[in-house]
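so i finally got all the pieces together for this one. its two components total, 799 residues if u count the protein bits. some of the lines might not be protein, just check the labels. i wanna see the whole assembly predicted at once instead of chain by chain like last time, that was a mess tbh
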Amino acid sequence: MRSTKSRKSESWAETKGAECRVALPARLDPAAIGNLHKSLLAAADQKKPVVIDAEQVSTLSTVCAQALLAGAKSFQKRNLPFCIKRPSDVFVATFDGLGLFSSLMSWEIRQ
Amino acid sequence: MDEIAQLRQTYFQECDEVLSEFEGHLMALDEGRGNAETLRAAFRAIHSIKGGASAFGYRRLVNFAHALETLLDKLRNGSATLTADTISLLLRAADIVADLVRAAQSGGELIEKHESAVHDALVLRADAGPEANAPQAASTVASVNLTPAPADKHHFRIAFNPKPDLFQRGVEPQLLIAELRQSGSLTATADASAVPALEEFDPKKNYLTWTLELETASSAEAIAETLSFVADEEELSVTNLDRAVGNGAIQAPAADTDQSAGGDTAAKPAPEGVPKAAANGDEASGTAPVVSSIRVDLHKLDTLVNLVGELVISQAMLNEQLSLVPTDKFPGLIRGVQELSQHARNLQESVMSMRAQPVKLVFARLPRLVREVAAETGKRVRLVMIGEDTEIDKTVIEHLHDPLTHMIRNAIDHGIETPEERMAMGKPPEGVIRVSASHIGGKIVIQLADDGRGINRQKVLARAIEKDIVLRDQQLNDEQIDNLIFAPGLTTAAAVSNISGRGVGMDIVRRNIQRLGGRITIRSTPGIESIFYLSLPLTLAVLDGMVVRVGDETYVVPLSNMVETLRPQPGQVRTLVGGGDVLSLRGEYVPMVYLHRKFAVEQANTDISKALVMLVETDASMRIGLVVDEIVGQQQVVIKSLESNYDAIHGIGGATILGNGRVALIVDVSMLLTGGISPGSPLVSNAA
């Protein structure tokens, strides 16, 4: 059974030059919340502009979308510029479907 | 029982019900009776099971249910196509979910058989898209109408204020929103103001709330039902905007209360663009009832049944006393007692009905059984179920599963022919098993019919003679031969399979049915069909009995055991050498049991020519003659357990209190001969 295996704890945050990049994986299902939370905290701690790469996202659970909202609040609180890079259709559709489109639109989107 | 254990018990009870419904939905789709709502209901069923499993940490069940739920989600939104193959896969998946639920309940580990294969097939089917799901137009279930019928539109505002443990319960709000979107046009607005910054953020908690505006043809009840699968009552309020009064909106209870943030914030503003609800609306008319039933612990219900039983007994005693009062003296008292009597009877019926459950709880397990046995035997069988909503006492239902399982296994293994045999006989290759339930004359009658080869009477009779069940020169009519299949040790199967053929099935079936106070008979037409008739009492709390007198004592003999009553003629009673008396009756010798001897009753009639013999049938299909002094009359009695009130008495199944206040013992006919005659004794024995 594939999904019974527990996921390894890992951070997707990576500092590249003057910014910190968080490359979101394809599946942001509820099981991914731990890694996402850890990655966003790691990115916030870098004290550099944050780029969240959402190009690969094909599944986005509500709990992960909520973590992104928490991340955005943290970055804003710390005056760290952040943007969502190339959000996939699923990423945008999920925010839209959840009634969070206005939140997404308040962030910088980079294509 | 602690709170968690209670919740777990409730969850498994709900799983049983939900799985039954789920299978019913799949069968409806399979038979072309389904529609878009059927698919949505099937989705909700699995979603509900998954949610509970997640809360209790049954990961394996969650994982499998998730794959199934994903495919159902795609089917209902049109991303996957419902084909006959897909339904077959869903049915197999339902079987595995049932196994996983059972394993979770028992605490055991389910042995992996088809789980991985079906899981992967579900994932593949869900990922394949609509084209891949419909390889052949012919296999598509064309009759599934996925478009809801046009109807009047209603406008609802749903305030969804989930608790912080929303995600821990395995609830995914997107599915809820998608579900609602299926039923109409939906605008969702989330309020994320309570989401904290990462430093204070607990990734397991939910901080979001939603306001959902829905335009739909569905009723408020349907909406409430959809929502009740994912949310507690206090998390939701549904406001029907069509019924708005005053300024056009109705107050939604609890809509302003922030429950998601742990209750430390008194109120939160409504999301932008959503009008504030008016404060003085008509809550009762505008808010849909989310829950229309409650669960009651069975012990509490049993206590109530017991108390009402006591009330009915007291009432009967009162009536008896009243018969001594001159009718012209106290007309008001007599009228009052008569009214009380009527109310007590109505109350008893009403309480009994609370224990009643639809037989579909048992029937729902049959499709899987038929599929499995048909696959094992290489036969093609279609199951038709009728009257699934017929209600019967919960205890009877619980004991009905095993007999029905035996009978269906036998019907497929012995009755239904192989497709080749059927075609050679001019029958369609697919056999049909029809199971129906109905209320007839205060009893529930279940018929189980198969259109197979019927009973081979020559073979049955030959086998019965070989096994010494009947004598070689004994003359039996067709009905008697057919009923030989209930004799212990008789099987005509050429080989003993793991399905049936050990000859221990049908006698156990009869015993179980008789233990429930019921009867079973069979009617067979060779080459055409076999039909079993099961007649069962609606409840086990009351019993139809024959009240008899033995000396100064009164006993109750269950009517379901009775065959006939007679006064023996001289010469009919013979004494066996070294044994008891037997009654010679129409060529049979029937062992006799003198109740006054059995229970040491003094002052009883010992002259057999003045006694009455009640011919009764035991669970083991034996007939015995009960010798009593007098028959008082037929009466419905409330059964009291002797074990819990006194102690077990051999030959006595319980007790009751009669209208005159006296305790009467209920005779357990099957126990009377225990130790006297071996269970393997002939069903009928010829008079010499």
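The domain at 15-110 of chain A is CATH 3.30.750.24 (Transcription Regulator spoIIAA).
Chain A has one domain: 15-110.
anyway lmk what u think
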